[in-house]
Amino acid sequence: MKMRTASIHAHGFHDRELGVRMVPIYLTSIFEQPNPISGETKIIEGGRELKYAREEGPTTRYLEKTLAVLEGGEDALAFNSGMGAITSLLLTYLRSGMKVVVPMESYSGTIALLQQLSERINFRVVKVWPSTEKIVESIEEGADMAIVETMTNPTLRVIDVGEVARVSKERGTKLIVDNTLASPVIYTPLSDGALFAVESATKYIAGHNDAIGGFIAGSEHDLSAVWEWRKLTGTILQPTEAFLIQRGIKTLEIRFEAHSRNAQVVAEFLSEHPKVEEVFYPGLSRSPHRRVAEKLFKKKLYGGIVSFIVRGGEASARTVLKNLKLIIPSPSFGGPESLLTYPVISASKYIPKEERDRLGITEGLLRLSVGLEDVDDIIEDLDRALRAIA
Ligand SMILES: Cc1ncc(COP(=O)(O)O)c(C=O)c1O
To answer: Which of 10, 28, 79, 258 has a C-alpha 20 to 30 A away from that of 128?
Structure first.
């Protein structure tokens, strides 16, 4: 099945008795035991027992089938948020004395979680410059685990995940790839040799700014240990959210293509704007990341996020945010509504200021999640807000 077909049909649900093909929302915390004496349980997809909804639930399990197919994994596990997925994965595999490599430009929740856990479990977090070269160098020096994002946020550096995976395999490093910004539409880290692909499903996967979720894809064997931790920590994705994400995912490819096309036009517009100092978008022909992006990403699509630095620093950034009429000033990304974020106070706030400055995450930086509105309307709104800068 091609991706577009799989995102619609791969869940495989079919209630032949009632003729229902849409996955229902099974709102139940309990499951009946057919034989209460032996403790026998009903078994669902992938041999999972249905006992209690903190462990397993049918609506979530059908979504996981779709997610596994899209990411090219043997299996997938869905969680109540992207952070729930990352937390459960880290708790499964982290041990005292380990070395964990993480690029200094990573989702700040991931960095904060690693730092907090390292103080309790006593492992070492090695923050490296977010380039393929520096990540590979640190893994070659010996590392137990590396957590790398396909495309960094907010300055959109593209990491050659295939190269990182090759070295990780050689050195026995567990490689976790956060593929949230790329989505499986343009990249599947597992096919390049990553051990796990994780994503915040809140973004492009659900795609409608109305549900929070996350997932991990990988081999059945590796995920079975994570399943135990999901059960212990109670981080399973809830049925209503699973339903919303299953519904959203059906249009994933179509939406991602439209986000990317709009983003390309917006990035080119911003590149020419007199109030804009610098634009970050791997789809721009002069972007230093275009070559790796072309190598990694299918279909010559570069995603829906464009970041840019306005002339005049913080005051100008705040002026733009205050003068928007259509675009919503809000964190997150990947939904139909265009959103403008101020990274120094949101997604990047846990990155120390001196690191932020080196990375280009300055007081004048704004991150735009380009939505699915008509691109002319997005540009008109941006242009008016930018022209309000003194
Ligand atoms: C790259 C990345 N990974 C993980 C997360 C965490 O996901 P969630 O907000 O669904 O917990 C985010 C959230 O913004 C993110 O941008």
So the answer is: 79
Token pair of 165 as six digits: 């995976």
Which of 106, 202, 233, 350 is the best mutation target for the ligand 1 pocket, counting ligand atoms within 8 Å of the beta carbon and taking the most? 202
The finding on whether 87 has its CB within 6 A of some atom of ligand 1 is: no
Q: What is the mean pLDDT of residues 72-82?
A: 98
Q: From the CA of 105, how far away is ligand 1's center (Å)?
A: 13
Residues in the chain: 390
- Between the CA of 178 and the centroid of ligand 1 the distance, in Å, is 9
For the residues 192-208, what does the mean pLDDT come to? Answer: 98
Closest CA to 191 of 214, 234, 161, 155: 161
The share of the chain scoring above pLDDT 90, in percent, equals 93
Q: Give the residue, by CA position, lying nearest to ligand 1 atom 16.
A: 107
Convert the pLDDT of each residue in 350-374 to its tens digit: 788 899 999 999 999 999 999 999 9
Residues 381 and 300: their CA atoms lie apart, in Å, by 27
Return the structure tokens found at 362: 């300055």
Please state the separation of Cα 41 from the chain's center in Å: 34
**Residue in this structure with the two tokens 């010996």, named with its chain if needed:** 142
Cα-based angle 322, 209, 109 (whole degrees, multiple of 5): 80
Burial of 306 (0-12, 13-18, 19+ CB in 10 A): buried
Model confidence pLDDT, tens digit, residues 90-135: 999 999 999 999 999 999 899 999 999 999 999 999 999 999 999 9
Assess contact for 314 and 363: CB atoms under 8 A.
yes
Q: Which residue has the tokens 């807000």?
A: 385
Q: Is 82 in the pocket of ligand 1 (CB under 6 A)?
A: yes
- Dihedral pair phi/psi, residue 347, rounded to 5°: -60, -25
Rounded to two decimals, what is the model's pTM?
Answer: 0.97
**Pairing mode of beta strands 196-200, 174-178:** parallel
